[in-house]
Amino acid sequence: MLRFLVRRTFGAVLILLIISFVTFFLFFAVPRDPAAISCGEKCTPENLEIIRHNLGLDQSIPEQYWHYLTGIFAGRTFAVGDCPAPCLGYSFVHQVSVLDLILDRFPTTFSLAIGSTVVFLVVGIGAGMIAAWRRGKPIDKVFSGSSLIISSLQIYFVGPLFLALLVYNNPIMRRPEYVPFTENPYEWFMGLLLPWLVLATIFTANYTRMARSTMVEQLSEDHVRTAKAKGMSGRTVFFRYAWRGALIPIVTILGIDLGSVLGGAIITEYTFNLHGIGELSVRSVLTADLPMLMGILLFASFMIILMNILVDAAYAFIDPRVRLA
């Protein structure tokens, strides 16, 4: 296990280096003048030169990338001050370090991701297990058909619809907002309940279909049929043998989905005006904040890679047939 984790860590670092090079090339080498993009429409020559110097655009592309890369491991000094390691750059739009602002927005995104994950795992996997248990029965057809319909919906449609029905026209639920959990757990829960339900709606349908299909497949495996032939009860076979084998594809998809949401639930955060990493990325696009965009992309890539490493490590605990060499 230790060798596996060390090998995957080195691989993750290599992947992040490749991603940093590609994104740096796209953001700072491909555009004709990144400083003009960041400067905006009403840009004077004086402001253009200041931005070009602050972004390091008066240097060659290899020098710019080298300074950016060394800043991640050793820190960096800008005209406005020092940026300690790990330094992902400095946002001259927000006048703050890129990493500091990302970490400031991360609790909102993390709360949104964890709450919605609990909802869609409990509801989605539960519905899929029931559908597999009652395969071919009316409840199976209801759950399967509902999941197909729900999976075709989009957050930018469901979000405003829920806001109109449950918040504005009929004040059944509170207006979404983020309150730190440490300040008031109840307000934290109530302020994020509606975004949790909306974000979980799309994922729930996918996990219902995934859980049902994997459970049906596992129930037809030889070791499951052998357990049935030995006289074990259907419930024991279902939960002890079939369920454990069905977890691997579910955990694989969960790692990808959770890593993506932790990197910023863009549509959900922007729909409900939650100031997380996803909403920050939208604002950075609108303001052409290139350092912030690149920092968010690297942070999102790190979260996806981290979750994939954790998923691979979890395989050995879920299925003893898996060996991590």
Number of helices: 13
Mean pLDDT: 82
CATH topology title of the largest domain: MetI-like fold
Any idea what the CATH architecture of the largest domain is? Answer: Orthogonal Bundle
Report the top-level CATH class of the largest domain: Mainly Alpha
> How many structural domains?
2
CATH superfamily of the largest domain: MetI-like
User: How many E strands?
Assistant: 4
The low-confidence parts are none
Relative helix content: over 70%
Taken from the alpha-carbon principal axes, the silhouette is globular
- N-to-C SSE string, H for helix and E for strand: HHHHEEEEHHHHHHHHH
Which structural category fits the helices and strands?
A: mainly alpha
In terms of DSSP E residues, the strand content is under 5%
Strand order of the largest sheet: 1-2
Largest sheet: 2 strands, antiparallel
Radius of gyration from the CA trace? 24 Å
Distance between the termini: 7 Å
